Write a sequence for this structure.
């Protein structure tokens, strides 16, 4: 368990800045995030919750946000981060006694490494968002648990206009009544569940046990924000290659994209799209540890960064109905 001492300032207008990192790897087709265990007094019945690596910024000694973040991650997991980008700044509002809290979240991509730090572990991201994984078809939790719970929430709203507005949001975000499922709307779906008090992070005694594992602080919102960013970004930036070894098979590449999008892809269409986009080049070598026929090994073709303004893995027409 990681114990943290918050950094605060004296006075009525004190400001606290926390930093956290959503660190993602894809291993054997499973998207996994690094978590630590941290106390959360807001949920007394669950005193230890999963959290992202995090810690406070001390403006008196910390030189930069990113350097401080990397220091917290190294201290809590013994990992050294590579690719990092600032994700979002969350205003947590006033926390009492004139203290205002701001949290700055970062997104880091890497290949999974063994963790020697007690309390730090890799967790399947879909354990926190089970409704987001469509690789084996529409998740049963949506129709069996989530939609009935949302409909029950709608019946308790006092304003008919609000009911209609929220019903429309539910249809759009969860692909109901003719609306398509849009993978990038991870955050919108979580926010609707939060508003309906179906997740424990909303601060009530509610929360539906089937709707994913809870996280400390605002960290499940951070993960939802990061997954929304990634699902959109892979279509115009080659970020997926940060999750792959230098040499990889096209099947490994497809597994990473499917893991991030939560969708199954048509094998031949996907490979044709990748090769036509000039994203990869053959190394002339073969991988023999495939469990079947040897497969060609490829590398990321960095020259594509100069050739195309949006060198991502385009996905139109790539999803396969399950």
């Amino acid at each position: 368990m990681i114990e943290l001492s918050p950094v605060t300032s004296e006075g009525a207008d004190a400001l606290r800045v926390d930093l956290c990192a959503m660190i993602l790897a894809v291993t054997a087709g499973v998207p996994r995030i690094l978590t630590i265990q941290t106390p959360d007094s807001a949920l007394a019945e669950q005193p230890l919750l999963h959290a992202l690596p995090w810690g406070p910024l001390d403006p008196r000694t910390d030189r930069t946000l990113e350097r401080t973040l990397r220091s917290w991650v190294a201290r809590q997991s013994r990992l050294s981060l590579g690719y990092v980008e600032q994700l979002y700044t969350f205003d947590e509002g006033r926390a009492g006694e004139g203290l205002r809290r701001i949290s700055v979240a970062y997104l880091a991509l890497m290949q999974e490494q063994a963790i020697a730090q007690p309390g730090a572990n890799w967790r399947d991201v879909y354990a926190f968002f089970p409704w987001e994984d469509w690789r084996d078809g529409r998740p049963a939790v949506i129709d069996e648990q989530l939609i009935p719970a949302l409909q029950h929430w709608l019946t308790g709203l006092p304003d008919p206009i609000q009911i209609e507005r929220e019903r429309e949001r539910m249809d759009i975000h969860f692909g109901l009544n003719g609306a398509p499922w849009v993978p990038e709307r991870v955050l919108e779906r979580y926010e609707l569940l939060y508003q309906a008090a179906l997740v424990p992070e909303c601060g009530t005694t509610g929360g539906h046990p089937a709707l994913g594992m809870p996280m400390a602080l605002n960290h499940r919102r951070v993960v939802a924000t990061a997954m929304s960013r990634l699902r959109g970004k892979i279509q115009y930036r080659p970020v997926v290659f940060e999750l792959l070894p230098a040499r990889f098979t096209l099947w490994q590449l497809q597994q990473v994209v499917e893991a991030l999008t939560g969708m199954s892809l048509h094998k031949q269409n996907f490979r044709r799209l990748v090769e036509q986009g000039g994203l990869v080049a053959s190394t002339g070598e073969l991988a023999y540890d495939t469990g079947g026929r040897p497969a060609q090994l490829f590398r990321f073709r960095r020259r594509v960064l100069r050739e195309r303004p949006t060198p991502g893995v385009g996905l139109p027409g790539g999803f396969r109905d399950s």
